[in-house]
Recover the amino acids of this structure.
DNA sequence: AAGATTGTGATTTACGTACCTCAAAATCTG
DNA sequence: CAGATTTTGAGGTACGTAAATCACAATCTT
């Protein structure tokens, strides 16, 4: 049988109340006594039964997810997964999840949303970060209030948040470059790059990683300046169409951000574009179709459901003072070809 | 506040004891009363608090993982992850995990191990299945005894087990073929295939998927007969070396099973072999090095930690009568290039 | 109709921890 | 050494469910 607090009390030769004071770091216990209790805990290998503890504590967790609004399908999936994970968590643990939408690429709006949070009733925050000064300040305020903060998908400097949940975007960019470079197969030419905005870290980092590898390993390829599509299918389509019309020797295309629908529309509009090696992000239904039809050659994905669940687990672990299981929370760079579509 | 059994009792106009009988499907309640209680449950949206229930029940879960012994690093990782997940589970839920080693590729031994399980004290079984008649029969016996059974990595026919935790091996084979086909870049030639044994389903399925895609999409490539390395580095190395020495026009290599060490030794022994496009399975330290050095071109992986945790969650869900969260338990086919190594 | 069987209710204890109160003991202060 | 203060002990209640006991009523047997 597992040892209980009673066993610890007996082993340490103190009362149950004292063990309780030590375990819950309440004041009013002499150093020497604390040491005795801790020794007993160690000797018995006592581990607090979290289920029973939470039952007694009647603790509940109120988590807020701040996610960009708009048609970005990945963000919508993330939102939906967060809500669903919350619904499920409500049954087992006492978790509730609320989603607060904010306009995309708008640091000021995000900062306002952060400042509007009631730090007394909210127990943790997960957000897709736009990396700007007001956001960083707002995060510092949350940190000061003792709220755990998790960044999703796109990060901010490490000391502003408790944890980052998302892929390594530099590595994702490198991967995209490697795939395009190898799939192009020795031909020389230019590569078109489309991002949402250079105001979000994830896009900046992907671009960086991409550049690195192209320069180092595929010097016969050349990256064109990054187009900005604001993660909007319309705009993305327009800027890409203009670029392709103007540049004759494009052999590859890397869509760093969202707006795959716009890309697909342009590509399927001109048979010549089928030759292009295309890599995009996020396995949305559109991207999946494009892969199946050979319009896209690879898609780099990340598991929105995993990220939502992971964020919740991490916030909860921070509050409970439990360690985070790194292996479980690491978000992988997924590569999809036509052949491993789930 | 969440409704409790008391609320349900009041709402249904019956006593707590009756509610308890209905909820736990105990005998001695009239149909009409059962219906009334169930209506009340539905009306209030009552969900039993599993933590409290397990606390009261003093229920504990004893899970047995049956994993092939031997030097196969992936299997060793799986074992270690299972033990670790069990250690962690001991604190929260009351989970214990034991690992039973069996000789690899030995259906009779596996069947004996299954039959040796004490179905009274074991609450669930996870196994890496060798697919043979005695194993299928032993699984049927476990099923009859009411034990949930999860297959890991390699499957058996669906009605013999409760759930399969692992990648879609046919798709994995297709993915390998697609990568090799595209990386070869139009050259024509032969592809060497090395598996552990054609007695395990995962290897058979990978091979099938691989063949499919090569035939359909890369007709200029030809698959050589499958070599069997018994997931052993020594043997794998020997059969591969012999094959390569004999076949002059091999352009690609797919290692379906383990024994990457043997492959690497052969490849690094002859500079000419550096030209080969090589795809292997499982991101072991050796495979990782080989990727980094360009000896391997891609590695197809699966997350052993995820699989171990997933198996435990699924077994527990079966016992608790809770639904399985498919999205969470789906094991992805991971593709690793030099650039997205974690 | 007496006895057996079955359905139901009321009540209690238990699980392991948190947290509260009140009193007693130990230690410190002057 | 008295008085003040800090530390410790004893005991209780609570969390939400499981499960047991006992009592009684309703229904069925013969």
């Amino acid at each position: 049988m597992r040892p209980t607090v009673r066993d610890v009390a007996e082993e340490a030769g103190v009362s149950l109340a004292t063990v309780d004071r030590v375990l819950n770091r309440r004041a009013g216990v002499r150093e020497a006594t604390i040491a005795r209790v801790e020794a007993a805990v160690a000797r018995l290998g006592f581990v607090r039964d979290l289920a029973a503890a939470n039952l007694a504590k009647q603790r509940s967790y109120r988590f807020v997810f701040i996610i960009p609004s708009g048609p970005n399908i990945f963000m919508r999936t993330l939102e939906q997964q967060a809500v669903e994970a919350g619904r499920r968590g409500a049954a087992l643990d006492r978790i509730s999840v609320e989603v607060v939408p904010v306009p995309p690429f708008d640091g000021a709006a995000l900062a306002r949303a952060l400042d509007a949070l009631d730090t007394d009733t909210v127990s943790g925050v997960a957000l897709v970060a736009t990396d700007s000064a007001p956001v960083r300040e707002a995060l510092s305020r949350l940190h000061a209030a003792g709220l755990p903060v998790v960044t999703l998908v796109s990060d901010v400097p490490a000391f502003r948040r408790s944890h980052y949940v998302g892929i390594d975007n530099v590595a994702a960019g490198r991967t995209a470059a490697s795939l395009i470079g190898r799939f192009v197969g020795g031909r020389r030419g230019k590569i078109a790059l489309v991002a949402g905005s250079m105001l979000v870290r994830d896009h900046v980092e992907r671009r960086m990683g991409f550049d690195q590898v192209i320069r180092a390993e595929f010097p016969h390829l050349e990256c064109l300046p990054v187009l900005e599509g604001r993660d909007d299918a319309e705009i993305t389509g327009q800027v890409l169409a203009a670029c392709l019309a103007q540049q004759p020797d494009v052999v590859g295309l890397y869509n760093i951000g969202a707006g795959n629908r716009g890309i697909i529309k342009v590509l399927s509009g001109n048979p010549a574009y089928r030759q292009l090696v295309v890599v995009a992000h996020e396995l949305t239904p559109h991207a999946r179709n494009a892969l199946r039809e050979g319009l896209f050659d690879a898609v780099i994905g990340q598991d929105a459901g995993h990220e939502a669940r992971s964020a919740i687990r991490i916030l909860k672990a921070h509050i409970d003072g439990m360690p985070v299981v790194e292996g479980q929370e690491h978000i992988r760079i997924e590569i999809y070809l036509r052949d491993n579509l789930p």
